[in-house]
């Protein structure tokens, strides 16, 4: 890979725009687009450098996802959920080399919904159904949560050990391939399972954050990118559309106010997300421990993105009049995709409670904010 992470969205734009309609029809990214993404290293954002990855800082990854989602939300969402390269440092060196080494580019789909783990000789039996696993049909491996008496663990399970059920019959985010995954007493060797709180053996800035802080914010970056995409589409529509009064839509003050307000809201929410993530990056780069307050601020930024994106999507939809009603409307699809994405558990506005508790002098309540 000779290009930087920063260059990826524009390098990938032609392929994403070419295949996004086909992805919508298929309900997943087509093979040609996946090949382009792989060849450009889009699934190796968090993979260690010695294994051929970018080893990018979280704030850098969030910026990339937001810019890619501005082109197409489901593509960026799939890239987000298949970027589990940081797990190389949660595995032993031999396992990491087996899965990531030798030029391999494993696509690992993640689900934090817990299944059931049962200790057996040499490892665990994993059983359960994980719903809404994005990129399910594309995945080579699955990173599936399981519950033990000692708490939440994650199991790395190969594709041929589970079943993928076609359950993703939806109006929005169709192309995200968020289907169900079923495991029935799948044997997981002990060296392919690790605690949510396990320290990464790679003591480098990109891997010093708790695992949850590497995974959670990505969908917020995608969502705010989609909100920006809705603004882009409204601008395009307004420049070409005439209101029922005969006045150009772009010349109407109500349209101008809506676009100006939406643009400012997106920029503010995006800036807050990147600045709170950037503060965590700066702290880990300095070799210091991040605080509950810093991590809770990131959760607050995620919830703020959710509220902002919903407001912007609704505003752009309403401002465009009848145009987004049609299935051929790009703005209509961005609206449906964005509102669907905002329903994700990771984007729940209940996360505002975390920074709120700390500000009120209450305990964080969870050890991995």
Please, could you describe this protein's structure?
- By secondary structure, the chain is α+β, with helices and mostly antiparallel strands.
- 46% of the residues lie in helices and 15% in strands.
- A seven-stranded mixed beta sheet has the order 5-6-2-1-3-4-7, with no helix packed on it.
Q: Compute the CA-based radius of gyration.
A: 21 Å
Number of helices: 11
CATH architecture of the largest domain: Up-down Bundle
Oligomer: single chain
Percent in strands? 15-25%
Largest sheet: 7 strands, mixed
By CATH, the topology of the largest domain is Butyryl-CoA Dehydrogenase, subunit A, domain 3
- The parts where pLDDT drops under 50 for at least 5 residues are none
Distance between the termini: 34 Å
User: Got a strand count?
Assistant: 7
- The string of secondary-structure elements, in order, is HHHHHEEEEEEEHHHHHH
Mean pLDDT: 95
Q: What is the strand arrangement across the widest sheet? A: 5-6-2-1-3-4-7
- In CATH terms, the superfamily of the largest domain is Butyryl-CoA Dehydrogenase, subunit A, domain 3
Helix content: 40-55%
Number of domains: 3
